[in-house]
Amino acid sequence: MNRVTLLPPALEPRRRTVTFRWRVEPKTSLYRRTSFCLTFPPAVDLAAVPPALWWTVALLCLHSHWNLLRPCRVELPVELPPGEAEFWRRLVDVEAATLEAYRGAPTPLDALPPRPGRRDGAPAAAAAASWPPLAAFEIEARGPRLPPLASLPRPARSAAGRRSAAAFSGGKDSLLQAALLCELAERPLLVTTTSPMPPLHDHLTARRRQVLAAMPARRDVTLLEVESDLRESWRNDFPPTAGYPVSVNEITDTWLYFSALLVCALALGATDLFLASEAEVQDSVEIDGRIVQHPHCMYSRASQRAIESLLAPLGLRYGSLIGALHSEQVQQLLWTRYGDLCDLQYSCWRVAADQAACSRCSQCLRVALSVLALGESPERMGIDLVPLLLAQAGWQPRPATGDALPAAAVAARLHAQVMRAIAATPTSRVLAALARGGPARLLGPAGWRALAAYSRLRWRIAPAAGWGCQPAPGYRAAFLAGLDPRIALGAAAIFAQHFPGAGPADQAGILERGDRLARFIAAPLAPAAPAAAAETAAP
After folding, report:
1. 257 in helix, strand or coil?
2. Radius of gyration of the chain (CA)
3. Which of 24, 126, 281, 419 minimizes the number of CB atoms within 10 Å of its CB?
């Protein structure tokens, strides 16, 4: 059994840095280094953060790794407040259920084949036989008892009352959420986390610095930058060695970003915390009594509501303002309602050091075609259509399957989005977009080849798309529940101006499963509460 020992967080006020260390025995190749730091800007008074909360930050940032080390025992030199050890054990177990569902998949998660068995929660012997049992995991917390969060001093409120704070990266999701908050709340706090992960350059480009500088210049916001080396500490390709077709950052990143947001919010008196989580991340199915989420469940609504229950004694709310919107709607709303911000979109993680986007990957293709379908130019956000159309000339849609895990179902819907965008974008519009780059660019051989590649792509996709295949989805109003009513009602009114609403069948099951997961995880925090006490069995 692997043993993980967490050491006390070390605060260095002069450097505004907190260092977290741990040991793993026997040694594992998961980590290059068993420590990481968080460094905060001068505006963040670390003295305003209760010392006990640094243990919460450590658990937030590290707990998702423990499934990769199962069987595993985690040892803490402090005793957690009542119910918290079981809270973290349940959160890890819920995440394990999702990881195990994808174990051994031979293809990328967006191309997973359906697994045997029904997806409606009914027993399925074939599926059960193919699932390995969840390996042992336990938390041993011994030492001085940490004070319960309810006994810690609450953050000082701003004079205006509740203040909103949001994680911000510049991607379409966080950019739209920030724009909405600027419209619906007073002077929101935006927190960006810079944590490079070699060999990627997305946290280091000049384009990212441009986006971070432009946001407070265009909106009345406070933008803070937190630095961390956590993403340098792990070996990102470790999970496949344990059978999981994900990377470490896919199960860890937003826990880091939320931790930075949490500390800044506490120090500056913000009480409503947001981290963008669109509708695709909420997908789930039930198999043999266990709820399987999308692999990016680190920021699903279920995870966010569970963490909100943990932090409720501090008077904090936590959620996503765009959880009601699908990826397609996020793109459309950003470019139709916030035309003065949409050019800041920074969505490609494969970007090279001197680029604004790689202009070669399938994500760049989806983003670019969505913008072209709206009559806009993707080059406003730095996507170059010529290399993109040449690189993606062979793009093929992935058909939807009636029986698939969430990742495959979401991938099929994203492909349907691309087909709708192709259907709405005639070749003449691509010609016009290329012509904006000047005659030399359009008349050069690469420009003509790119135009021809798009023409062939459109011709090839037409029979499969039927130019009316799957209709665009509606927004899921029910996923605004639990947010500050003032902000939620404003967001609902905006969404209703732009999109039709989804029917009950499109949201009720996903909402119910997510709420059940959140209640199960949070139940140990308040065992006397009737609603929590009823959740005694693992979902």
Report:
1. helix
2. 23
3. 126
Residue 204 has pLDDT above 60, yes or no: yes
Question: Of 208, 225, 226, 171, nearest to 61 (Cα)?
Answer: 226
Taking residues 327-355, what's their average pLDDT?
96
Distance CA 536, CA 492 (A): 34
| Three-point CA angle 380, 344, 454, nearest 5° | 35
Spatial separation of the C-alpha atoms in residues 172 and 154, rounded to whole Å: 32
| pLDDT tens per residue across span 468-492 | 467 888 999 999 999 999 999 999 9
Nearest to 519 by CA among 529, 508, 509: 529
Chain-centroid distance of CA 203 in Å reads 16
Cα–Cα distance, 151 to 140 (Å, whole number): 23
How many Å apart are CA 506 and CA 313, to the nearest integer? 33
d(CA 366, CA 25): 44
d(CA 130, CA 126): 7
CA-to-CA distance for 202 and 380, rounded, in angstroms? 18
Please identify which residue in the block is written with the tokens 């409606």: 120
Mean pLDDT of 325-336: 97
Residues 375, 371: Cα–Cα separation, whole Å: 7
Residue 199 preceded by cis peptide, ω within 30: yes
Q: How confident is the model at residue 535 (pLDDT cuts 50, 70, 90)?
A: very low
**Across all residues in the chain, what is the average pLDDT?**
88
What pLDDT, on a 0 to 100 scale, did the predictor assign at position 403?
52
In angstroms, the CA 252 to CA 299 distance is: 10
- Of 43, 67, 38, which Cα lies nearest the Cα of 53? 38
Amino acid letter, residue 399: P
Q: What is the DSSP letter of 150?
A: G
Angstrom distance (rounded) from CA 166 to CA 112: 32
How is 331-376 classified by DSSP, letter by letter?
Answer: HHHHHHH-TTTGGG----TT--TT-S--S-SHHHHHHHHHHHHTT-
Over residues 426-452, the pLDDT tens digits come to 999 999 999 887 777 777 789 999 999
User: How many alpha carbons lie under 13 Å from residue 534 in its C-beta half-sphere?
Assistant: 6
The answer to whether residue 107 scores a pLDDT higher than 70 is: no
Token output for 220: 């009345």
Average pLDDT over residues 448-472: 79
C-alpha 40 chain-centroid distance: 22
Q: Which position has the token pair 């929660």?
A: 121
Contacts of 234 (CB under 8 A, 6+ apart): 30, 31, 32, 65, 248, 252
Supply angle C-alpha 353, 350, 448, rounded to 5. Answer: 90
